Amino acid sequence: MLQHAYGAASDIPELLTRLRVQPDDELWDELWCCLCHQYTTYSATYAALPHLADIARSQPPSARERFLNFAGVVAAWTEEEAVPAPYRADVARAVESFRALAGEALLLHRYEQSAFIYLLEAFAALHGLRKLGRQLSRLDDGELECLCPRCEAHLLILVETPAFRVTTEEPNLPPHAKKTTVAPSSSSAPPWTPSLLNHVDVASLRALATHVGHLQVAEWLRQLEGSACCPSCGERFELLSALSW
User: Which is more confidently placed, 175 or 11?
Assistant: First the structure.
């Protein structure tokens, strides 16, 4: 029998039927807790994902945001080999469908900055950029986590203007805590073309953000493509390769 966070998943078919009729926040909260509780996925998650993709396609674009964010979280936190063999083909088709819907949403619909970042995070995860799919939304929180590749110090990337800074990851950092400044990427984002939706990396995400008018997000991505020196050991490292998780 299929399982979710609270045991047997016999309630999921009814919840999916209700979601198709009225995808309200309360129902979504119940489904999310059952199928992706604290970033953990279950056999019922994989069985439900194709149905969620089908329901998402039937909804107007304005009602798809929760579907896309959910699919992104599942993609970011699920190892491909963890999906049971009987579900892999259906899950792969569902992910492909969600990729197309997320790309369409990012390109054609206008979002506030926070909502855009969360959707961009889901889009990255659906295209296999799992570290960005777990951390990109933290741009909205003002800090990301990384690990020095040399001394393995736990570090924070601070989202600051005009440049990000890196500091040691400790609670209640004193004002004099050592911080190093990020050297952002000197490369320009590629010229926008819709084909970039099928070849996703940080540079194409920058191009997309610029194209739809989210210039602050594009600049933050340029910073993430840069490098910094570890405040603990002095080693220079690339931020993207050092992202935690």
Answer: 11
